[in-house]
Specification:
The chain has about 240 residues and is mainly alpha-helical. The chain contains eight helices and no strands. About 40% of the residues are buried.
């Protein structure tokens, strides 16, 4: 996938002390989560995962452009997506094991819908107008469905709905800017690893590490991209 046709925007101002602290906390929590996965300390991994999205939401708020409050729909959608992602990180540990996977999928489906609603106003700047550029997304979606649907059983329908929604989110994210578009593509990779672990038996320490590493990176890139676009609206530095 090439990013040469993504819309570009001006960079964010240098983050203040509060933003730097929130971003550092996010990085430390991500590192703690991955350390817990590698060392088998489930308590550490889970606790760090539960705090990941709140710390990223705090970073998102402290990175907000000064003065005006541009693109409120995009801002609110991103915050809603982070909230539903947090639910997806925590709720599976609080419900019976038999419904934990569905609870996670349901929460992250709502997160993808929230992102879609935020990215939709930028659809004309996205890859939707370039059919050939959409081919990698289509191939990734079809490949994932072919790999997982035959073994998904009664969950084949939810897997299809989630896969289509996730792909739509990733495509629309390209209309915001390159950073958000790349983050959304990495999000697709993270969720693909989850699906392969659940339905193809790829469940392992390496798979869990890959899921969380790509998830943490994806959410960070999306958030930074959203704030970069909002900062560009404030300064008027638009291509």
């Amino acid at each position: 996938m090439t990013t040469s046709h993504f819309p570009t925007t001006s960079p964010l101002r240098s983050p203040g002390p509060g933003a730097r602290a929130a971003l550092a906390a996010y990085g430390l929590l991500a590192a703690a989560n991955l350390t817990g996965i590698v060392t088998g300390h489930d308590g550490l991994a889970n606790a760090a995962q539960w705090l990941l999205m709140p710390s990223l939401a705090l970073a998102f708020l402290t990175l907000a452009p000064r003065g005006a409050h541009p693109l409120p729909r995009l801002r609110n959608a991103a915050l809603a997506a982070l909230f539903f992602s947090w639910l997806g990180d925590t709720l599976p540990d609080l419900v019976p094991e038999g419904v934990a996977f569905l609870a996670m999928v349901g929460c992250f489906l709502l997160a993808q819908v929230a992102y879609i609603l935020g990215f939709l106003p930028f659809r004309r700047e996205s890859l939707t107008s370039r059919p050939l550029a959409l081919l990698p997304y289509a191939v990734a979606l079809v490949g994932l469905l072919l790999a997982t649907a035959p073994r998904a059983g009664a969950l084949a329908g939810p897997v299809l709905v989630y896969g289509v929604t996730l792909t739509a989110m990733a495509v629309l994210a390209t209309g915001v800017n390159s950073m958000t578009g790349i983050g959304a593509a990495v999000f697709m990779l993270s969720d693909s690893l989850i699906a392969l672990g659940a339905f193809r038996g790829w469940d392992s320490t390496a798979q869990s590490f890959g899921v969380m590493a790509t998830y943490a990176l994806a959410q960070l890139l999306i958030v930074l991209g959203v704030q970069r676009r909002r900062a560009a609206e404030t300064t008027g530095a638009r291509d």
